C-alpha cells in the first residue's frame, strides 16, 4: 500500500474540481470546513446558490435550527447559552447522535449568523414554540436579536404555550404575517387588533372571535350553524374585502345537508359543480359577491357506532381582493 | 511506455463491426504513447469531441502521429485511460446540483486511486481537463472523504488552508511585490490627508 501524504492542496485544484469535492461532503464536514477560514466559508456558501429556508423550533432546553432545501441540517443551541450569551458550543444533530462543535469566542449569535450565512438561508419559514415554561426564564427579545435581519414567515405555538406568552411573542415579532395557534376560545385579545395574512387555528373559536379577526385567510374548525352566522355577518358587511370562502368538510352526512344548514336564511346561487368543488355565490349589502367552495375531505376517518358524528367544518376564508 | 504495453482490452474481432474496433493513439507530455478504444474515449467529453473533429479513419490512426495531450504526464494518463477502459460504455452521470452529491467509489476505482496525494491531485486535474465526469466525481469523493470527522484545525492541515491572518498577510505581500509604487502613492495620499489637503491632484 502506498503511504498517503498527509496533505492535499484543495484550492490549487480548478474551481469545478474543488467545488465537486465540497459538494461531496456531508453536512457536518461542511460546517467544520466553513469554520476554517473566511475563504472556505465563502467556498462552502458558493455551493448553495439557491436561497434556503430554515425552521426554528424552541423546545424546553434548546433552540433547534433546521435548514431545509438542498441540504438538510439540524443544529441546536442550548437555552443556558442563549441566556448568558458567552462563547458556547453548537450541537450538530445527526439522527439521534449529537456532536458538539466549538470555536473560540463563538457566541450564540455568531453561530446563528454562521449557519444562515454558510447555507444561504434567506428566510425563516417558521418559528415554533413547543414548550415554554415561562418567559421569566428567557426573554423573547433574545430570540429576536438572534434572528435579526431575517424575515420570519410563520409563528407556531403548541397547546403548552400559555396565552400570555403568545401575546409576548406577537409583541416581540410584530412583522410575522402568518400564525398557527393552539388557542382556546376566549383567549384572542392579543391578535384581534393586528392584520395578518393567515391565521390557522387548531381548536375552534367562537363566532364573535372569528368576526374580530383581520386576516386575509382564516382556517378554523366551525359548526354549520356557526358558519351560517359568519356568512350572515359577511352579508351584513363584515370583512367586505373577502370575496371567496372555501370549506373543507369534515362530516359524514351527504354534503347537501351541510349546504342547507350553512345557507339557512341567506340568498345564494348554486350549487355549481366545478373542478375546484361545489360552489355557491352570495352577495353582501354593498353588492360584493363571494364564492363559497365546498371540498370533500382528503382523508376518511371511520367512526365507531357509539361515537357522536362530528359536524365540524374547516372554514378557510380566502381569495379576497385588496 | 511502448505501444505494446499500452492498456488495451481484448476484443472479439468477428463480433464487432470494423468501426468499433478503432483504437486511437495518444501521447503524454513525457512522450508515452497509449492506445485507447473508441468506446473508452467517449467517457471523456474533451477527447470525444477532439477525435470527432479530426475525423480519423483506421489508416489515419495508424499512420498519423499520436494525438498529443500536452498538459498530462504518462503516469497520470495511464490511470485515466485505465479508468476509461474499465468504465467504457457506461452512462455519463448528469449533475442535478444536489448537495451532498451521492457518489460511491467502486472497488476498481478505489484500487486505481490507491495512490499518493500528489498523483491523486494530477488525476483530478486531468479528469477536469479531459471532462471525464464520473472520474472527477469519484476522485473528488476520495478527497472529500479526507475531511471525515476532522476539526477545523485538522482540516486546515489536511487541505493546506491558510488562516485568515495568513491570507491577509499573503495578500498584502502580493500587492506590495506587484506594485511598490502603489504603496508610495497611498502613503503620499495619507500624508496629504493628514495635512488637510482636499485634493490629491
UniProtKB/TrEMBL annotation, chain A:
Classification via Pfam families: F-box
InterPro entries referenced in this protein's UniProt entry, alphabetically: F-box_dom, Zygotic_Embryogenesis-Asso
Highest taxon above the source species: Eukaryota
Annotated F-box domain residues: 7-51
Signal peptide: none
Protein name: F-box domain-containing protein
From TrEMBL, chain B:
SMART domains from the UniProt entry: Skp1
Domain SKP1 component POZ: 26-88
Pathway: Protein modification; protein ubiquitination
Key word Ligase present: no
UniProt signal peptide: none
Region (Disordered): 166-201
Domain SKP1 component dimerisation: 134-178
Keywords assigned: Ubl conjugation pathway
GO biological process: protein ubiquitination; ubiquitin-dependent protein catabolic process
Keyword Nucleotide-binding part of the UniProt annotation: no
SUPFAM superfamilies found in the cross-reference section: POZ domain, Skp1 dimerisation domain-like
UniProt cross-references to Pfam families, sorted A to Z: Skp1, Skp1_POZ
Ranges of Basic and acidic residues composition bias in the record: 169-194
Superkingdom of origin organism: Eukaryota
PANTHER family: SKP1 (PTHR11165)
Family: Belongs to the SKP1 family.
Primary role: Probable essential component of SCF (SKP1-CUL1-F-box protein) E3 ubiquitin-protein ligase complexes, which mediate the ubiquitination and subsequent proteasomal degradation of target proteins. Regulates cell proliferation during embryonic and larval development.
Protein name stated in the entry: Skp1-related protein
Organism whose genome encodes this protein: Caenorhabditis brenneri (Nematode worm)
Amino acid at each position: 500500500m502506498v503511504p498517503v501524504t498527509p496533505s492535499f492542496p484543495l484550492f490549487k485544484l480548478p474551481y469545478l474540481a474543488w467545488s465537486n469535492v465540497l459538494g461531496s461532503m456531508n453536512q457536518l464536514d461542511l460546517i467544520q470546513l466553513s469554520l476554517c477560514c473566511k475563504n472556505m466559508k465563502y467556498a462552502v456558501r458558493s455551493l448553495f446558490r439557491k436561497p434556503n429556508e430554515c425552521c426554528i423550533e424552541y423546545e424546553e432546553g434548546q433552540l433547534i435550527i433546521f435548514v431545509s432545501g438542498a441540504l438538510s441540517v439540524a443544529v441546536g443551541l442550548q437555552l443556558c447559552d442563549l441566556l448568558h450569551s458567552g462563547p458556547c458550543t453548537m450541537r450538530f444533530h445527526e439522527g439521534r447522535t449529537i456532536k458538539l462543535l466549538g470555536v473560540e469566542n463563538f457566541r450564540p449569535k455568531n453561530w446563528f449568523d454562521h449557519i444562515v450565512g454558510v447555507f444561504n438561508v434567506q428566510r425563516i419559514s417558521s418559528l415554533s414554540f413547543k414548550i415554554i415554561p415561562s418567559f421569566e426564564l428567557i426573554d423573547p427579545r433574545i430570540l429576536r436579536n438572534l434572528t435579526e435581519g431575517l424575515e420570519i414567515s410563520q409563528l407556531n405555538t403548541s397547546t403548552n404555550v400559555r396565552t400570555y406568552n403568545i401575546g409576548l411573542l406577537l409583541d416581540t415579532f410584530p412583522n410575522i404575517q402568518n400564525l398557527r395557534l393552539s388557542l382556546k376560545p376566549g383567549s384572542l385579545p392579543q391578535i384581534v387588533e393586528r392584520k395578518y395574512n393567515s391565521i390557522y387555528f387548531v381548536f375552534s373559536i367562537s363566532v364573535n372571535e372569528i368576526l374580530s379577526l383581520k386576516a386575509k385567510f382564516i382556517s378554523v374548525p366551525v359548526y354549520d350553524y356557526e358558519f351560517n352566522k359568519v356568512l350572515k355577518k359577511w352579508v351584513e358587511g363584515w370583512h367586505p374585502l373577502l370575496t371567496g370562502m372555501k370549506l373543507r368538510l369534515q362530516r359524514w352526512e351527504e354534503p347537501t345537508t351541510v349546504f342547507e344548514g350553512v345557507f339557512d336564511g341567506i340568498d345564494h346561487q348554486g350549487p355549481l359543480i366545478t373542478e375546484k368543488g361545489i360552489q355557491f355565490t352570495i352577495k353582501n349589502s354593498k353588492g360584493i359577491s363571494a364564492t363559497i367552495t365546498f371540498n370533500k375531505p382528503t382523508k376518511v376517518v371511520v367512526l365507531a357506532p357509539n361515537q357522536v358524528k362530528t359536524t365540524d367544518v374547516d372554514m378557510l376564508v380566502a381569495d379576497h381582493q385588496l | 511506455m511502448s505501444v505494446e504495453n499500452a492498456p488495451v482490452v481484448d476484443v472479439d474481432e468477428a463480433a464487432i463491426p470494423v468501426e468499433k474496433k478503432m483504437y486511437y493513439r495518444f501521447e503524454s507530455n513525457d512522450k508515452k504513447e497509449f492506445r485507447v478504444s473508441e468506446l473508452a474515449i467517449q467517457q471523456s467529453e474533451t477527447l470525444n469531441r477532439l477525435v470527432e473533429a479530426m475525423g480519423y479513419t483506421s489508416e489515419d490512426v495508424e499512420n498519423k502521429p499520436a494525438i498529443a495531450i500536452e498538459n498530462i504526464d504518462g503516469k497520470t494518463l495511464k490511470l485515466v485511460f485505465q479508468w476509461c477502459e474499465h468504465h467504457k460504455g457506461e452512462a455519463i452521470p448528469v449533475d442535478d446540483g444536489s448537495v451532498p452529491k451521492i457518489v460511491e467509489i467502486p472497488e476498481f476505482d478505489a484500487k486505481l486511486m490507491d495512490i499518493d496525494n500528489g498523483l491523486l491531485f494530477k488525476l483530478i486535474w486531468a479528469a477536469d481537463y479531459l471532462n471525464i465526469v464520473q472520474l472527477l466525481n469519484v476522485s473528488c469523493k476520495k478527497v472529500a472523504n479526507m475531511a471525515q470527522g476532522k476539526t477545523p484545525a485538522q482540516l486546515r492541515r489536511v487541505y493546506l488552508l491558510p488562516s485568515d491572518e495568513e491570507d491577509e498577510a499573503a495578500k498584502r505581500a502580493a500587492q506590495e511585490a506587484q506594485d511598490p509604487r502603489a504603496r508610495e502613492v497611498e502613503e503620499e495620499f495619507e500624508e496629504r490627508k493628514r495635512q488637510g489637503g482636499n485634493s490629491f491632484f
